[in-house]
Amino acid sequence: MRSSIQFHKNENILIGFIEGEIDIHTAPILKDELESIVLSDGMILELDLSKVIYMDSSGLGVIVALYKRVIKENVYLKLVNLSQRILRMFKITGLSELMDIEMQRATNAS
Predict the structure, then answer these.
(1) MF terms per GO, please (predicted)?
(2) pLDDT tens by residue, 13-66
(3) Element (H, E) at 71
(4) Which of 37, 72, 82, 83 is least buried, going by the fewest C-beta atoms within 10 A?
(5) CATH fold for domain 3-102
(6) In the chain, helix, strand, coil percent, each to 5?
């Protein structure tokens, strides 16, 4: 299965909708797409993972690399709508203590 990401911008909020599987095969593609985002100081980047059906450690690596980048560029990263299985991965690794993770979106994507 493939993965895809679509972005919607609403003022200073950029919402990325990720869909599919994030594994050893698709993670490099997702990483490239996330690295191509132009970030600006004070921006909010929200990743909706509601349609991610599978994520392995390579997917976590992509998220960690993005997290490091947004910290350097003074951008706020929020992960929303994670499945219980994916949320568990973030909790086991301790990443849920570092990253803002919400089970439901607080912002309006329209």
Answers:
(1) anti-sigma factor antagonist activity
(2) 999 999 999 999 999 999 999 999 999 999 999 999 999 999 999 999 999 999
(3) helix 57-72
(4) 72
(5) Transcription Regulator spoIIAA (3.30.750)
(6) 35, 35, 30
